[in-house]
Amino acid sequence: MSLDTTSRPAPKLNHARIRRFLQEQLHEREAILRDVAPTAAPNVDPVSWATAQATQRVMDQITAALDRLEAGTYGRCIRCGGAIVAARLDVMPYAENCIDCQRNVDRR
Question: What values do phi and psi take at 53, rounded to 5?
Fold first, then answer.
């Protein structure tokens, strides 16, 4: 059973705290990239390369979340526009989809 989340308001969030946390996460991942960069090539060190690729994907998600904070759309699903529940944002502050839409994405 799917609930209509489009009419539900976005959760009340402390945007300044979230922004600081996301910026800290971004800086930590930048440090990881700097550490693995010398060997981050599939033919040199596949593990470093995979780490760099995964780290870059998360950095892109964090940057997009910071952009949504600036645009005033943080906490809203980018697919359906519904609210992303606060518990999901607590676990993954850079989540861009509500749970229902993320399930649909994962099925593909």
Answer: -65, -45
Q: Is 29 exposed, middle or buried (0-12, 13-18, 19+ CB in 10 A)?
A: middle
Query: pTM for this one?
Result: 0.81
pLDDT tens-digit profile, the chain (108 residues)? 344 444 445 557 788 999 999 999 999 999 999 999 999 898 889 999 999 999 999 999 999 999 999 999 999 999 999 999 999 999 999 999 999 999 999 998
Pick the closest to residue 92 from 22, 30, 13 (CA basis). Answer: 22
Instruction: Tell me the C-alpha distance between 68 and 52, whole Å.
Output: 24
Helices (H), 37-96: 46-71, 86-91
**Token pair in block for residue 92:** 């993954």
Distance between CA atoms of 100 and 54, rounded to whole angstroms?
24
